[in-house]
Each structure stands twice: as structure tokens, then as C-alpha cells.
Amino acid sequence: MTNSENTTTEIVEKPKKNLPKPYLLTRISASFLDFLLIIFLFVGFEAALYFSIFEPLGYHRLMDESQQVLRDSHLYIFDEMRGFLSITEAYDENLTPEENYDIPITFFYTNDARAIENNLLEDYSSSKIASGYFVEVSEGVFERTSEATDVLVKTFFVSAYDEAVDFLEEDPVYVNGVEKTFYIVIFTVLFSATLAVSVIQLLIPLLMKNGQTPFKLAFKLCLADARDDTRVKRKQLVIRFVILLSFNIWVPILLFARFSYFTLIPIFVSLVIMSVTKRFSGPHDYVANTYIVSSRDIVIPEKIEHRDENEE
After folding, report:
1. What is the pTM of this model?
2. Quick check: 173 and 69 in contact, CB under 8 A?
3. Average pLDDT over residues 86-112
């Protein structure tokens, strides 16, 4: 006599990876409009910080101190529309090179305490004689030599002016003001950007059933779990947000702080990866195991369906 046992086997349906993917242009359009929303929020947050904490942090005082150093030097010209301009930028063709450059440089070396301590006026006078373009007719009074053209003299003064500016920009008051105001701006920008991105890319998606941002919802796009084509999980949304924030916001801003030429490289890398992959997925999607799908006329399952099959 043979006994037969009923065994229960759990069969898990394999994911079919067949959720409809959106057109790249559709995804880019939704992302761009979400980005504009982020910019709008960022400007609002940064304005709020400017009028609330910039003064207690000493931003305005430090800016005034730095600008006063520039005014006192006479090496910069202040324009109401364009701010502080170098003499080279504001060069007046109606004046001689001496009137444009020599008078401000001589004033700076004569009146600046650090310049006086370093005997820079004497060095400047010596460099005039050494150039061969000037002769000293009396103490501190120079005239051009006959062969010194405006072009040659201007070239000399541009070099002398650049040296004076380099020395000016080492002024402790100026350096302190520039550095501290720069860090205040960088950190407030990081904070405002983080807050703005958090609202659009984390808070709203966490509140939505399928992790949509405002314009992904408008364009009928949503996120799915790339592992099994089910509804995106909250943990995935958090991971996706952290990578997106780090790679596309923090890294570019911090790069700008030190290496401005490389600021857009992380964003460019993300766009390239999105353009060449089958699912148009960026680094944040790969790390979080998510991808964007079109939600038109479909319902993304919350989990994989299971079924039991009894065999005798």
C-alpha cells in the first residue's frame, strides 16, 4: 500500500520587466519642470535666510570692511551698475597710461600701511627706472624717455598694477571678509538647496502612492522597483533622494567652491548615463534599484503575486 503525501509548493511568478517606459523627452520635460520648482523654492528659502541670519552672522559687516579696503586703495573704481572694477576693466582711453595707472598705484604705495612697511613705493620707482621707459627728473618725479610709446608704457603699468592688486588682496581685513562671506553664502546655499530638493524629491514622493514628484504626476510618470517591477518602496525613495542630492546638488556646489570649472561635470555625467541606458536611469536610480515608468492605463502591483499548487 502506497501512501501519498500532499505537498504544498510556493511558486513565485518571475518578474516580466514589461512595465511601459516613457519617452526620454517626456522624462526630461518632467524633470526640467520639477527643477524649476526647486529653483523657485530655493530662491524663497535663500531670501528668507538672507533677511534673517545674514546680519547676525556678520555678512554685511564683513562685506563693508572688504569693500572699504578696495575703496581706500584707489586701485578699483566703483560703478553703481557693475560694482567694483579694476583699472584695466575701466580703462579710460581719453587719459594717458600714467593717468590711468601710475597715479592710483603711487597713491596706494604711499598711503597703505603694509605697503609702506614693505617699501613698495621704492621698489616701484626702481622698476620704472629699470624698465628703461622712464627717467627720474627729481625725487619721485618721472618722465618718459623718447622711445617709450603708449603701448610699451601701458604694458609696463599693467604688470605693475597686477602686482599692486596681488599685494592688496593679501590684506588681512580683505582676506577675512572675502573668505567668511564666501563660506556664509556657500553653506546657506547648501542648506536652501537641500531644503528645496527635499520638498520636491523626497517629501512629496513619500506622500504619493508611486513616488511621483509634482510634474511626474502631471506627465503620468512614476517610480517602480527595478528588481521585480512592483511599487517603489519608501526605503528606495530615501536612498534615491540621498544619491540625487549628493551627486547632483552637493558635489556641484562644493566643486564650485574650489574648482568652478568642474561644477557641471556630475550633472553632465548623470545626463549621459540617462541618455544611453535602456531605462533612462541615472546614478540615483541604479543605486536605489528604481526606474521611471509610464503610468498611463496601468496599475503597478504593490508586491509579487504568489500562488499555491498542491501536488499529490
Report:
1. 0.78
2. yes
3. 95
